[in-house]
Amino acid sequence: MTGKPFGIGLDVGSTTTKGVMVDSKGSIIATHLQGTGASAASAVAHVLESLFSTSGKTRDDCRIIGTGYGRNIVDIAYKTVTEITCHSVGVNTLNPDIRLLIDVGGQDSKVIKIGSNGRPEDFELNDKCSAGTGRFLEVMARVLEVSMDDLGPLALKSKSPCTISSTCTVFAESEVIGRIGSGDSPADIAAGVHLSMASKIGSLSKRVGVATPIGVTGGVALNPAFRYYLSDILKADLWVPEIPQLTGALGAAIIAMKDNLVS
Amino acid sequence: MNDEKPYRKLETQALLQQIAFRHGMEAMAASEEGTLAWVSSGFPVEIPVAMNVFPTYPEQAGAIIGATKIGPEVCGFAEDLGYSQELCSYARASIGSTDRPDDVAMGALPKPQALLGCNNICGTILKWYDANSEQTGAPVFLLDTPPLEAEQKPHHRAYVKQGLERLIEFLAKTFNTTLEEDRFREVSDLSSRAIKLWTQSLKACQNKPSPLNCADRFLTMAPVVSSRGVEHCTEFYEVLLAEVEDRVKQGIGAIREEKIRLLWDNIPPWFILRFFNQLAAQGVVFPADTYTHAWSGAVEGTDTDSLLDGIADIYSNVYLNKNLDAKVDKMCQLIKDFDLDGFVMFSVRSCKRYSLGQLVSKEIVTERTGVPGVVIEGDMVDSRLFNEAQIQTRVDALLEMFV
Amino acid sequence: MSYPEVIEQSNQVLKALVDAGERVLGYIYPHPPHEIIIAHGLKPSLVRTNPSVVGAYEASLQTFSCSLTRNLFSQRVNNSFPQLAGIVFSGNTCDALQNVGDVWRKRFPKDNVFRLTYPVGDLGASSVDFLAMEIKAFSDELASLYGEEFSESSFREAIMLLDEIRNALQLLYCVRILHPSLISYNTLSSLVGEFLTAPTQEAADRIKMTWNEVLERIENMGQRNKVGQLRDSLLNHDLSDFETVIDTSGPRIAVIGGMIEPNTVAGLLENVHGISDTTLVLDMLSFGFKTVFTPPVGIEDDPYEESARSILGAHSEPTQEGLPKRITFLKDVLTRLSIHGLIVCEQSFCDPDEFESPSLERAAKEVGVPTVKLPLDSELSDRARIEGRIQTFLETIDDN
Hints:
heterotrimer, B: alpha/beta, Rossmann fold, four-stranded parallel beta sheet, C: alpha/beta
């Protein structure tokens, strides 16, 4: 295979589809992020279109890797790599010191131990249920009748978080409804929701073994209350990249460029 | 009058606390002396006790962890080690508290020198003790009592008896001790007396009003589980029986106003024993439950050989080691003997051996006795798996049937 | 072959047997007394879970019954099983199978439900005696229900048949371990699947044919003795004397766990990006390795005793005593057979699997072999994620 001067990573997630284009030095040329919606294929097409128009490059200039749950539908990709490896490589590019990466996306969460070569050494994923994922927060935001963007700031106003003991999303939903019924403040309930979420992720992290410094990526990394409670539980500062949703796509693009050098 | 609680506290409870404290101290001392064994609730403790090995119970520790409401946290310690949240919460609490004893205020047990499990209560016990063994380095002894289809057959008894003989060898080797026949007889006798006294207290609940409620029995069963065969255990049940009989004589009930009498099936949710007290306020009492009636057989025998035969028989014939028909028979019998109006089956996610089959036995019990029942689902230690509002609705719906 | 195809094929085989007037006896636990069943004129057949079953267990079982029992129960409620003359539940192996057997009897009183109770304890002769008596009782029940007495001659034929099947499969397992390019895991697992569907002469012939094809190449390579040595070591549960040089140019993965079929594992791996045909070199599954590496039934003693001895001579299940032995054996396998990564299958709500897997993972890590845990259910409802886990795992092994 002949080398191509640019690499593209396409990270097709359950909630959003992300694309990153890098050059041969690994510098970011273009990025795009949009909702996955009902058709992942059309989301992929849109992201690609945007990347090409921003950069002025064409498909022939690029090697493409698909990652994320929809990685197999990226049919123009020459190979797929799982988002776990991609996030690891992406974060390593941005901050080579990070040893533990916590990625919390829409429908799953992962904890990845990053080796000194930037690749995953060990990892853990949440189980099938949606507890400990972005979906959990979405459901709770709906019950509390606040937007996802407001949920975190609301929680940070709390002085005494409620205990939300159920880890099952369905149970927790009825627990939250019960809390509302018994007159707890929305802030305390929201704080309890984040605390429950952070402790679930904390537990996942302990299975892999907590190592510092710790990075957090994925959409939920933008939520300040989640970061606050997670940092408290892990007793460590958390590093968050500027656009935490993009690290998977970035990693995929970097891997595409590295493959390029080999081939 | 309005401040009066809907239930009456047992005076014997003070003594119970003393016994529990004493048991804890003795277990610690035994651990230091190198004579401590962790034991499952259906284990024939008469043998280790007679051989001067001190038994203590992880299941009871699990109940304490549940009751002190740290179940989710301690179970979480085990989950951190890779044990699935789907596993028995007694086991998770035990593995978790063994891993991080300093983070468990009450319920972490002192380090054992041996782990003695009997699978007459569940198949899980072996796996759980295997995990504990990896943690503590103490060897596991499993007494295998395969579940019974019907009557115990001779080859079954012979096999269990072989296991008992192997147990004696194991204890002799591990603890450098021997089994003396006189002592064995004496311990078995004390154990039988404690069980008989306890059984009498249980039976007294046939009276109306019932002198004991569910929670009373769950708490007072602790010594017969943990210390049968020991002198002070027998004494405790003498005191308890006296109080129970006194209540019966005076017509005093466990709750102020007994209106509805129900059967409880399965392990209780330890973290929310107030569940029973709340129901007491609605006039609901539980004069019987399958958990404290789980075993009532007393060990009889005149010499080591006949005592071992008795043990091989009695410990194979416990409630959880029998098939669904036997369980249904027992529940129907309790409903009849205790004149109960209905039943509550607690479907405990932790305990497959106890719970799988309830959906079917509920139908059969109602068919045979004519009384209604309800199945509620939750857990005994892990409150994360317990949805109070949902359960309340179901129980209320059952109670409305009696109006 | 995909797993649905396996089920389809298995159903066809069973249907053909039934049409030809044979009686098929289904079993769930992977260590039935095959030879005794055949001696009563019946064909033992594994009752398979079906990933595409529509859930129909809710009126009888709670959601925390293990996914295997829920799946089987749903199939029965939906009447989607092949025609079985009876079904054998194991007793004393795990709480779910113990109780679901009772529930089954209540819900389907016309089914012929047998229970064969196994010893959990490792008590040597005493365990053999117990199991022999249980098998004897089971045998009497078969005789009275189906009217066909135990036949000494059929029993001897069955011993030979099972010996042929296991012998060839054992050697093929060893070839796969030592020279994975000579037989694909797909082929191997399909042959195991045929054995589980029904140990017929036709199945035995196909298995032997495959072995003969492989044998020639092994002999040309001068490796026949090595394969035999490995087989003996595995049968004896002891690899401590086994030495060999293994080509480790590609990653070598083993899979361990309970109630999942090798076929299912093969099907899962097929879709994983980046896996090569030589990656999975060994399964240590209950329905694969452990069923295959069962010592032959002897002919000297009482048939029931011999049968019990054979069953108890297999590699122990997580439901039995002997975790320390299993751990030692696993470590030997990982180190002496040059395994680079271990996949640990964990069946949802399966107590034995879920309790054992942390110990297996720790053991592997102690000898420097990375592991990945696959939480599975019989419906493979989480398939995309599971494939993702495996792919990531291979990526980490490739890199480190």
